[in-house]
UniProtKB/TrEMBL annotation:
Pathway: Amino-acid biosynthesis; L-histidine biosynthesis; L-histidine from 5-phospho-alpha-D-ribose 1-diphosphate: step 9/9. It comes from Prosthecochloris aestuarii (strain DSM 271 / SK 413). NAD(+) binds at residues 126, 188, 211. One of its GO terms (biological process) is L-histidine biosynthetic process. The gene is hisD. This is Histidinol dehydrogenase. It comes from the Bacteria. Belongs to the histidinol dehydrogenase family. Binds 1 zinc ion per subunit. GO terms for molecular function: histidinol dehydrogenase activity; NAD binding; zinc ion binding. The active site is at 324 (proton acceptor), 325 (proton acceptor). It catalyses: L-histidinol + 2 NAD(+) + H2O = L-histidine + 2 NADH + 3 H(+). Substrate binds at residues 234, 256, 259, 325, 358, 412, 417.
């Protein structure tokens, strides 16, 4: 279930075993393209048809009523409400540190240059539903959008075959102050908000995780709207030395594996003894887990223990994998932090388990997957703002530099560019 590889001797073997892909099967592509095209053409009717087909109900209303939200909130366990409120405060507090400010400066000769930061006006935040509900995803998407200053925030999440949305999601929405919630999901939801329908507004950006149909739909509508990323199955890398607690390592690997049979969980260690302890404990404990079948499939297909010679090699392997989550179960974890170049989120020390980041600590849990941490970042306030350059040139500065600028345009063969400058020089 959890093979052990030696690095660098078996590097090619474990890389082949752990290969990840962001490609989609042809049948998935065909289904998604048909849905997008149909919703773009038929609007609300197509959206209702697909909601009935995939969710088992043709809802009388697209939106959750205020009464439904209020009832869910009043009926909720108070301890659950409190932890949602604490988590929301933590997430919002973290994202406030990300706010970028507009800036202007004088470049000389009465020239002013700068950059203006403005929020995106209208966003749709997708919250997965169906087999499981994720109020944490709602908080993680809503908080940075609110901090950024987005004016219109819409939530969409699948309803069940009775037309009801998860009460946990509704309570999280109430805590976050969101009352515009639509009760449909899938590729059809992405299409509706990307193109707009009679009842659904076209937005400027779509964020939030979903299944492969949602992920591909987001990819396909990019350009009509902005998106955050194309999320793949969850993944964790645990770097552990000989002092690590095997139970901590195994349960943290299980925590990722229980998401999805395609999830990946890897332990990298410089201790052959710990490697074997982790493998044996995983075999011993897997049947005690409620989602044991999912965990077993994930660890068989995408799990591994990699034995390296030292922590330098451990960092090298981790950088190669560029994981979504990276945990450091090592003494003096801060000492190797500078050697770790690629990871969505890094959890420092034995007591910083990934679960804390998923729900409560504050940094966003919407992270780059499939090795894209090499060039993508976690969801942040920066995903909900845009930047405009400001250029205020003076006549004096154009008189000084204009001919050089026009000559630059001449070298690119763009006559009108050059003449636009020279016309102004003649006036001067």
């Amino acid at each position: 279930m959890l093979p052990i590889f030696s690095y660098p001797e078996e590097q090619s073997d474990f890389q082949r075993h752990l290969s990840r892909s962001v490609t989609f099967e042809p049948e998935v592509q065909r289904v998604v393209q048909d849905i997008l095209s149909d919703v773009a053409q038929r609007g609300d009717v197509a959206l209702l048809d697909y909601t009935e087909k995939f969710q088992g109900i043709r809802p009388e209303a697209f939106m959750v009523s205020q009464e439904e939200i209020e009832q869910a909130y009043l009926a909720a366990d108070r301890a659950f409400v409190v932890v949602l409120e604490e988590a929301y405060d933590n997430i919002t507090g973290f994202h406030r540190h990300e706010i970028d400010k507009s800036f202007f400066y004088e470049a000389g000769n009465r020239v002013i240059l700068g950059q203006r930061v403005t929020p995106i006006e209208r966003v749709m935040l997708y919250v997965p539903g169906g087999k499981a509900a994720y109020p944490s995803s709602l908080l993680m998407n809503v908080a940075p959008a609110q901090v950024a200053g987005v004016k219109e925030i819409f939530i969409t999440t699948p309803c069940d075959d009775n037309g009801n949305v998860s009460e946990h999601v509704l309570v999280a929405a109430k805590v976050a102050g969101i009352d515009t919630i639509y009760k449909f999901g899938g590729a059809q939801a992405v299409a509706a908000f990307a193109y707009g329908t009679e009842s659904v507004p076209k937005v400027d950006k779509i964020t939030g995780p979903g299944n492969k149909y949602v992920a591909l739909a987001k990819k396909e509508v990019f350009g009509h709207v902005s998106i955050d990323s194309i999320a793949g199955p969850s993944e964790v890398v645990v770097i552990a030395d000989r002092h690590a607690d095997p139970e901590f390592v195994v349960l943290d690997m299980f925590a990722q594996a229980e998401h999805d049979p395609d999830a990946a969980a890897v332990c990298i260690t410089d201790s052959a003894e710990l490697a074997e302890a982790v493998r044996l404990l995983a075999l011993e404990k897997v049947d005690t887990m409620v989602r044991s079948e999912v965990i077993r499939k994930a660890l068989t297909a995408n799990g591994a223990v990699v034995v390296v010679r030292d922590m330098a090699e451990a960092c090298e392997v981790s950088n190669m994998l560029a994981p979504e989550h990276l945990e450091l179960h090592v003494r003096n974890s801060w000492e190797i932090l500078s050697d770790l170049k690629h990871a969505g989120a890094i959890f420092m020390g034995d007591y910083s388990c990934e679960t804390i980041g998923d729900y409560y600590a504050g940094p966003n849990h919407t992270l780059p997957t499939n090795g894209t941490a090499r060039f993508f970042s976690p969801l942040s306030v920066r995903d909900f703002v845009k930047y405009s350059s400001i250029i205020s040139y003076s006549a004096q500065e154009l008189a000084r530099t204009g001919e050089r600028i026009a000559a630059f345009a001449d070298h690119e063969g763009l006559q009108a560019h050059a003449e636009a400058v020279r016309a102004r020089l003649r006036k001067l």
